[in-house]
Design goal:
406 residues, alpha+beta, Ubiquitin-like (UB roll), Helicase, Ruva Protein, domain 3, 20 helices, elongated
């Protein structure tokens, strides 16, 4: 008996198949490498194929049951092949040829020349299509009406609140206290529902709070910010202090000093002027900030930057609605946003006659809430949940819904 036969490993019988349908049995010792087994298989099914040394590397053996590609350097035993197992001999797919430089340049040129159609091109291409704008306007009529009317209501209520505060001899002092109270609550004022949605997605609470504050409590924008800054080393750095509030407080303090002078009509007028200046400063701070992603997306469609910003302002930073506004009749216009409601209308009269609204208009915090919601509609949820301003907003909404049904 030969020595190699005494010490040879167990001989396995494996069933080999090819993609062309050939089948046969291979008897192979368990200490045989996969590469050697592959050579034997190629000799059996493709005679003369081993003349090219690349033929072996261009094929692979796959274990049929586990769908595992067998490693050439390992033995049959190491790959845990058992007697009667089925192996599949497959030719590797050749990689696609690299594109020529001329083809790459032509493709890049084609992409650059391919621009989005402008409004005239869209109207020309869709001129023969049946109009469906009526159905779409009906679907969005109630929502758009509410948003538009709410803005008008807030504009007019701000004027009423300013007049009421100006008539109060302690108006400046009251406003200064309310503003200071808002500054103290700024760190704690977070939309709990939005925060819970982000934490349930797996984001850390402190990071989610920061993202919500940077994105006006918008869950969608905050989530995008969190994903974009996930690897940013400063993502957990605290937000810097807010200096505008200090400036407003100083303005309130200076106006309070003016009001603390000798009691006279001139002193009263001076206090009213100071209060008016504070209102103007607040309005300047509440500047609209368009969503930069939406601006880029709409400008890539061929629209001018100014009209894109106007569209986003009219539609509360909602990209799809802004796109419809740009392609439609563009109403309401940006100028309409600063117009108030008809003060003689039944709706406005019903709002002013409501006791909860009347009491709220004497609170400077309500005025701040109205100003904030005008320029940052996404903050409305915060004010609706606020114990002081929430009841006022609830009554306005109920009155609007009641009169809108009649």
């Amino acid at each position: 008996v030969q020595e190699e036969k005494i010490f040879a490993g167990k001989v396995l019988r494996v069933h080999v198949c090819t993609m062309e349908g050939a089948e046969w049995l291979e008897e192979v010792p368990e200490d045989t490498t996969v590469e050697k087994l592959k050579e034997r298989c190629l000799k059996h099914c493709v005679p003369g194929s081993l003349e090219d040394p690349k033929t072996v590397t261009h094929h692979k053996l796959i274990h049929a049951t586990s769908e595992k590609v067998l490693a050439d350097t390992k033995t049959v035993l190491e790959e845990n092949i058992q007697d009667r197992d089925v192996l599949l001999l497959v030719k590797k797919r050749a990689p696609p040829p690299l594109p020529k430089m001329a083809d790459v340049s032509a493709e890049e040129k084609r992409k650059q020349e391919q621009k989005a159609p402008d409004k005239d091109a869209i109207l020309k291409a869709t001129a023969n299509l049946p109009s469906r704008s009526a159905d779409r306007s009906v679907a969005h009529h109630s929502m758009r009406d509410f948003q538009t009317e709410l803005r008008k209501i807030l504009v007019s209520l701000i004027e009423v609140a300013q007049k009421l505060l100006a008539l109060n001899p302690d108006a400046v002092e009251l406003f200064k206290k309310a503003n200071a109270m808002l500054d103290e609550d700024e760190e704690d004022r977070v939309d709990e529902i939005a925060l819970r949605q982000l934490t349930e997605m797996g984001f850390p609470e402190s990071r989610a709070v920061k993202a919500l504050r940077l994105n006006h409590m918008s869950v969608t924008q905050a989530m995008e910010w969190l994903i974009e800054h996930a690897d940013d080393p400063s993502v957990d750095a605290p937000l810097p202090g807010q200096t505008p509030a200090e400036a407003t407080a100083e303005a309130g303090a200076s106006s309070a000093e003016a009001a603390a002078g000798p009691s006279s009509e001139e002193a009263g007028e001076e206090a009213k002027d100071e209060l008016t200046e504070i209102f103007k400063k607040i309005r300047r701070k509440r500047e609209f900030r368009p969503d930069p992603r939406a601006v880029i997306a709409l400008m890539e469609m061929g629209f001018d930057e100014k009209e894109v910003v106007d569209a986003l302002r009219v539609n509360n930073n909602q990209q799809n609605a802004a796109c419809e506004w740009l392609l439609g009749d563009r109403k309401p216009s940006p100028e309409d946003l600063d117009k108030g409601i008809d003060t003689n209308s039944p709706l406005f009269q019903a709002i002013l006659e409501n006791p909860v609204v009347q009491l709220g208009l004497t609170n400077p915090k309500t005025l701040l809430a109205f100003e904030d919601m005008l320029e940052n509609p996404l903050n409305s949820t915060q004010w609706m949940n606020d114990p002081e301003t929430g009841p006022v907003m609830l009554q306005i909404s109920r009155i609007f819904q009641t009169l809108n049904r009649t």
